[in-house]
Each structure stands twice: as structure tokens, then as C-alpha cells.
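Re: the 254-residue chain
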Amino acid sequence: MSKRQKVLIADTDSTRAAKLSRLPIWAESGFIAEQFSADIPDTIKNAKSGCELIICRHDPSALPAPELMKAVAASGNTPLFIVMSRTADASLIRECFILGAVDFLTEPIDEQKLSDAVLRARSQLKRNTSNEEYVSTANDFFEELGLTENNDKFITQLRKFMLSSENVIATTEYAADHFGFNKDYFGRMFKSKLGMTFGDFYNRFRMKFAERLLRSGRYKVYEVSEMLGFASVDYFSAVFKKTTGKRPSDVKKY
């Protein structure tokens, strides 16, 4: 089972908050809603203990959503926000979205709209986490291979290239074009400098990234396969096994 992410419900009405926490959408989308707060200081305190998503019912006098979002951000925490309100005030909606709200829902709350907003938040959290894991993997991978920049322009460019290529499948031709070389020259130069082909280098990196994602417990095998651009889970599993000597299911954290 993937790790369930925490939801904090900020609402001045504890009964209403408890009712919201019992909706099936949380478990269905991989969240757990067991934290509550009734004002800004309490929300900041609870957010520091760890939560990925805050559901804020806007109360202009006791719990104004924009002020809450600003205060949480100023405290150094970066959860996502879904705002609920009795009124659809255009200026309030605009300010909440500018501050980064995933969605703004007007009461009475439609459960399908809430479900859609929660799933968008889940997807955004995965993208954010994936990016952090990607950068960490790249740094670790370069360190393991002993690829320090030390005035080596090529290694500096290679690191920048890898960090900018999270959402693409970097073929040798794609990498060569990025460096401004033709494919054959780039391939020879790469192997002379690193002792392996770019294809081998990139494949080893991708499988290291895949292993990190699997060990995090946040992603299923098929999700990692899709994130890395594989046409099928079976093909991903075969490449993973060939590269690491293990099956994806062997390293996935349950």
C-alpha cells in the first residue's frame, strides 16, 4: 500500500469538519484526514507536524483563507490548499488562486467537485515529490560515478542537461542536439569521457530514479513505469531487472 498523505481540515465548526473528514474520498485518493484546526495559529502549529493538503473553510472574520495561506507559507510549510466558502466572491477567488490554491469550492459542496479537486491535489503532490526525488537521484548518481565538475565544462553541462530532462526521454540524438554535436561525435566523446555510452549512462540513471520512487512507498509499479515513459509495465520490469538485478516488486516499499 502506498503511503497515505495527511490532510488538515481548517474550520471554525468542529462538527462540520468532522463530517467532512468522514467522506470516502480521502481513503479512495490516498489521503488520511485526521487533523483539525479552528484558527490560523492552530493551523500553523498542526501544519508543522506534517500535512500535505489543507482544506480551509473560509471565514472572513475568524479564518480568512488568504491570510491563512500567507501565514502557513511564511512559517516555512508548503502544503497545498483547497478553499471552501459560502460565497463566490470574485476578488477572494482570484486572491486564493494567486496564492496557489488548487481549487475554490462554493457551498453547498458538491462531493464530485471536491473529489476532482482532491485528485488534482494528489497529482500535483506526486509531481512535486517526483521532482525532488529526481534532483536527489541526479546528485547521488553523479557522486557515485565520481563526476565532479572541477572546471570540467562537459560534466557541468551534463549535470544541467540531466536536471532539465525530467519530463523527456533523452535519447542519444536528443542529448547530442542539446550539446550542439552530431550523434556520432557526441557518442564517441561521451564514451571517451565516462567509459560508457550515453544510452548505458541514461538507462542506469533512470533505473536508479525508478528504484528511489519505488522505495518511497508513494507510487505503484505501473505509475513509475508510466512516469518514466515505458510502453508497458512488463517492459519496464524487464529493464529494471536487467539493470539492477531485482524486480520492481522486490524493492517497492509496502
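The radius of gyration is 22 Å.
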